[in-house]
Model the fold of this input.
Amino acid sequence: MTIGDDDQWRTAPTRCSLRIKAWRCSRVAPPGRKRCPQCNERTQRVNSRRTDALRERYAQRKAGGMCAYCGRVAVDRYATCTDCRLRRSKNWYARTRRSERLESSLV
Ligand SMILES: [Zn+2]
Ligand SMILES: [Zn+2]
Done:
């Protein structure tokens, strides 16, 4: 890549990267943003609706003694079943290890 290419890349308007199936937005996004204002608002709306639904489901399952993630019978004292608890703790372990590795490489 030459310096000229790099400059062009930096000054060219960012196109909205939102893609839904075959449709692609590609409206011009404001500087420093990946998405145009319309798509930003749209995804925010969808996300907030989704988290609301998830929170509701979580509360319902927890109250009913079910795993909050898969809906199977939860283990006593926990909000999740053994499978989900192990999977989640494994994920957490992997994340921690990765961040620790990053930190050690910075030192
Ligand atoms: Zn867009
Ligand atoms: Zn589960």
The helical segments are 3-11, 37-63, 82-106. The first strand starts at residue 19 and ends at 20. The chain has a mean pLDDT of 81.
